[in-house]
């Protein structure tokens, strides 16, 4: 698939550009650096159908957190054994649905959930989720989910043995703690065969994060030490933003602006003599920028059409709704912008589409996939071309 040439002038709505070639490269990178770890993509991160279809065609499996997510993945032709129902607290109807669809792998972190699953789906294969206390996680679930690996996990393993659940495994981030539980499982006569090291991977280098290659090397070393190949343990992971963030760019338009005293933006009286600008764009925190609230991220915007170096001013970038909380960039340096100028935000595919709303009557942002001609994937991509959408806008002179 190639992009034809279009024009952006008539498009007043923000839109996502989805680089299919970049997604393919990310999967190749995963295979190169984590060859023994089977990825189960976290659907909650971005459930775009084309994204899911391309991942499925490359052999990626899926981590689903609800009945609807399972239905979505099954609808694109993925077999149920490639799905993990990764929600430690599930309604009974969802467990019954998983049973009816032969989705056997599911997680738990407490005795009540274990008993519930056993009564409704005794042939399921269980993964115990334990807490790892990752203080550097972008989003931490440790307060809500995960049993303590020292004080709670051993007793849960005993309960699993009593119930006849001999296929359970640890849902872990801490490989060292997982090995202790695997040894404990053997003592209980409950041999564990699958290790899930969870998520938290990123293809984007951010402050305080290890490069993916360095993280992969540490994981491989830990697995070699704690889970040597003769143990025959299957290792999986649940990457979400690793696959979803980088291939998606968000293109927004300045729909209005006002000139203000710079101190109104900076809060510094020393800037009273300078001017600043407030810009309003056609997306916001109730739409594609909801990740500002959920992930505490600061998006980085840039002018889509390059211009010569010019003076910059203290600026605020507001979202399109009437809510005063709808602020995207509170204080930043930007050149003077004008109505209809385009701002591009990189790495916007994670937790943007799936958590966006239609607050104030604004529509959810559309996605336009493309493959660059020089990527070499127009014929090599393994997805059905009938699934591809054409770009209704031209990026000539911009990208």
From TrEMBL:
<dbReference type="InterPro" id="IPR029066">
    <property type="entry name" value="PLP-binding_barrel"/>
</dbReference>
<dbReference type="InterPro" id="IPR022653">
    <property type="entry name" value="De-COase2_pyr-phos_BS"/>
</dbReference>
<dbReference type="GO" id="GO:0004586">
    <property type="term" value="F:ornithine decarboxylase activity"/>
</dbReference>
<dbReference type="GO" id="GO:0005737">
    <property type="term" value="C:cytoplasm"/>
</dbReference>
<dbReference type="InterPro" id="IPR022644">
    <property type="entry name" value="De-COase2_N"/>
</dbReference>
<keyword id="KW-0663">Pyridoxal phosphate</keyword>
<dbReference type="InterPro" id="IPR022643">
    <property type="entry name" value="De-COase2_C"/>
</dbReference>
<dbReference type="InterPro" id="IPR009006">
    <property type="entry name" value="Ala_racemase/Decarboxylase_C"/>
</dbReference>
<keyword id="KW-0456">Lyase</keyword>
<dbReference type="InterPro" id="IPR002433">
    <property type="entry name" value="Orn_de-COase"/>
</dbReference>
<protein>
    <recommendedName>
        <fullName>ornithine decarboxylase</fullName>
        <ecNumber>4.1.1.17</ecNumber>
    </recommendedName>
</protein>
<feature type="modified residue" description="N6-(pyridoxal phosphate)lysine">
    <location>
        <position position="44"/>
    </location>
</feature>
<comment type="similarity">
    <text>Belongs to the Orn/Lys/Arg decarboxylase class-II family.</text>
</comment>
<dbReference type="InterPro" id="IPR000183">
    <property type="entry name" value="Orn/DAP/Arg_de-COase"/>
</dbReference>
<dbReference type="GO" id="GO:0033387">
    <property type="term" value="P:putrescine biosynthetic process from arginine, via ornithine"/>
</dbReference>
<comment type="function">
    <text>Catalyzes the first and rate-limiting step of polyamine biosynthesis that converts ornithine into putrescine, which is the precursor for the polyamines, spermidine and spermine. Polyamines are essential for cell proliferation and are implicated in cellular processes, ranging from DNA replication to apoptosis.</text>
</comment>
<comment type="pathway">
    <text>Amine and polyamine biosynthesis; putrescine biosynthesis via L-ornithine pathway; putrescine from L-ornithine: step 1/1.</text>
</comment>
<keyword id="KW-0620">Polyamine biosynthesis</keyword>
<comment type="subunit">
    <text>Homodimer. Only the dimer is catalytically active, as the active sites are constructed of residues from both monomers.</text>
</comment>
<feature type="domain" description="Orn/DAP/Arg decarboxylase 2 N-terminal">
    <location>
        <begin position="22"/>
        <end position="245"/>
    </location>
</feature>
<dbReference type="Pfam" id="PF00278">
    <property type="entry name" value="Orn_DAP_Arg_deC"/>
</dbReference>
<dbReference type="Pfam" id="PF02784">
    <property type="entry name" value="Orn_Arg_deC_N"/>
</dbReference>
<feature type="domain" description="Orn/DAP/Arg decarboxylase 2 C-terminal">
    <location>
        <begin position="250"/>
        <end position="349"/>
    </location>
</feature>
<feature type="active site" description="Proton donor">
    <location>
        <position position="322"/>
    </location>
</feature>
């Amino acid at each position: 698939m190639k992009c034809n040439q279009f024009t952006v002038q008539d498009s007043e709505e923000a839109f996502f550009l989805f680089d299919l070639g970049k997604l393919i490269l990310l999967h190749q990178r995963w295979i190169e650096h984590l060859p023994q770890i089977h990825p189960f993509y976290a659907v909650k991160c971005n459930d775009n159908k084309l994204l899911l279809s391309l991942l499925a065609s490359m052999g990626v499996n899926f981590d689903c957190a609800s009945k609807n997510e399972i239905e979505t993945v099954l609808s694109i032709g993925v077999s149920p054994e490639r799905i993990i129902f990764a929600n430690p607290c599930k309604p009974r109807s969802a467990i019954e649905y998983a049973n009816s669809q032969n989705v056997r792998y599911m997680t738990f972190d407490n005795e009540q959930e274990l008993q519930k699953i056993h009564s409704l789906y005794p042939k399921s294969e269980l993964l115990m989720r334990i807490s790892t206390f990752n203080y550097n996680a972008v989003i931490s679930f440790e307060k809500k989910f995960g049993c303590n690996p020292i004080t709670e996990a051993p007793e849960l393993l005993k309960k699993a043995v009593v119930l006849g659940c001999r296929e359970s495994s640890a849902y872990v981030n801490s490989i060292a703690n997982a090995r202790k539980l695997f040894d404990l499982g053997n003592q209980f006569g409950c041999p564990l065969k699958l290790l899930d090291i969870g998520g938290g991977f990123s293809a984007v280098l951010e402050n305080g994060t290890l490069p993916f290659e360095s993280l992969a090397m540490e994981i491989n070393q830990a697995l070699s030490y704690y889970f040597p190949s003769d143990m025959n343990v299957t290792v999986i992971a649940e990457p979400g933003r690793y696959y979803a963030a980088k291939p998606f760019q968000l293109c927004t338009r300045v729909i209005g602006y006002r000139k203000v005293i710079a101190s109104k933006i900076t809060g510094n009286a020393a800037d009273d003599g300078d001017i600043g600008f407030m810009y309003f764009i056609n997306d916001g925190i109730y739409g594609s920028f909801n990740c500002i609230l959920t992930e505490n991220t600061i998006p980085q915007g840039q002018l889509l059409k390059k211009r010569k170096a010019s003076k910059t001013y203290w600026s605020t970038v507001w979202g399109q709704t009437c809510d005063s909380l709808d602020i995207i960039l509170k204080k930043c340096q930007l050149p003077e912008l004008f109505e209809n100028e385009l701002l591009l935000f990189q790495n916007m595919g994670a937790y943007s589409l799936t958590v966006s709303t239609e607050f104030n009557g604004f529509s959810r942002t559309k996605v336009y996939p493309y493959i660059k001609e020089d990527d070499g994937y127009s014929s090599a991509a393994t997805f059905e071309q009938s699934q591809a959408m054409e770009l209704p806008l031209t990026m000539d002179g911009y990208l």
